[in-house]
ABC transporter ATP-binding protein
Amino acid sequence: MPVPRLEIRNLVRLFDGRRVVDEVSLRIMPGQVTCLLGPSGCGKSTTLRMIAGVEMQDSGEIWVDGKLVCDTVFRVPPERRQIGLMFQDFALFPHLSVAGNVAYGLKGSKDEKRARVAELLERVDLLRFIDGYPHQLSGGEQQRVALARALAPRPRIMLMDEPFSGLDNRLRDGIRDETLSLLKEEDTAVLLVTHEPDEAMRMADEIALMRDGRIVQQGAPYNVYTRPVDRAAVAFFSDANVLRAQVNGALAQTPFGQFLAPGVPDRTDVDIVFRPQHVKIDFDRNGQGPLPTPTDGVPARAQVVRARFMGHESLVEFRVDYDGSILKATVPNVFLPAAGTVMWLTVRRDRCFVFPATSGKAAAFGEGR
Ligand SMILES: Nc1ncnc2c1ncn2[C@@H]1O[C@H](COP(=O)(O)OP(=O)(O)OP(=O)(O)O)[C@@H](O)[C@H]1O
């Protein structure tokens, strides 16, 4: 079996008796980008700091290329771990030139260093600034110099903590893509920390979804998005509609007909969760909606509460007659029906998830953004 570039096993970190990192395990292969994704305070940065060696774990192990780097007894110091760091506030040294910054962690002769510096600055398209100083560069250019500096010593692993959050949106996409291709070329294993699902979807080969110190789901972005483990995992990536229903005879009754809830005991509440893009809208035809179909189920009559244009799509909120629940639907382009308009909704049944009912937790996890 191939040896992971980075492997962490059951990392635990306690602050004031609280497990802020709780049995976190990960394996990252060379050239692979893994995103540790989760809301603020879930323990992402603490995990990263332990791997970097600037913080000690209370238990667990860190392995690099099959060799133990740190457990609770043995510890390779941070500077000998061959790990590159790139943080949002990881500023360049203002008194050093661009070349001086990139050469900072390099060993070897003056000529060797100069060659490596030039190679990397060329790669990030900043060779013309080799003798310039950080204050002469834009934020995006400084970020690219920081990337060149982090990559110059050929780290085996790159740890990145929200490295692009200081950049404006237009710059960010370009720099993300450049960074990604450079890291892939160098065959670096990357652990990127972010609280932004879009960033994780864009960058990651694998997403590790973290909550309250634990990894709750791990896999390729497509799998994490389309097969969420729970209601909060759906809501973290997008708006989520939730219908609460009680189970009887393994069936949950909703405005859209019955949903299977196999193995759920009678009189237990479940949440039927689906994304706004999986709600279909139809016009009212003399009090009638579309006919039921096996894929879309039974249509539910609803009234428009409000509609907003979001740029590439419109977001329409409905109140469903059946039980008064509020549902959101997205429609491509401009669709802005007046409040009070009667319409009929159906849902893509294959895109609905049935989970045990949860209380307020999901809202705290980003639902309703
Ligand atoms: N040195 C410390 N002493 C006490 N508590 C700490 C310390 N460092 C972090 N914490 C707590 O540990 C938890 C996890 O913090 P951490 O910075 O790892 O979260 P995060 O997921 O990276 O959040 P963010 O995205 O906001 O940076 C937080 O509740 C934080 O308050």
Observations:
- The domain at 238-364 is CATH 2.40.50.140 (OB fold (Dihydrolipoamide Acetyltransferase, E2P)).
- The radius of gyration is 25 Å.
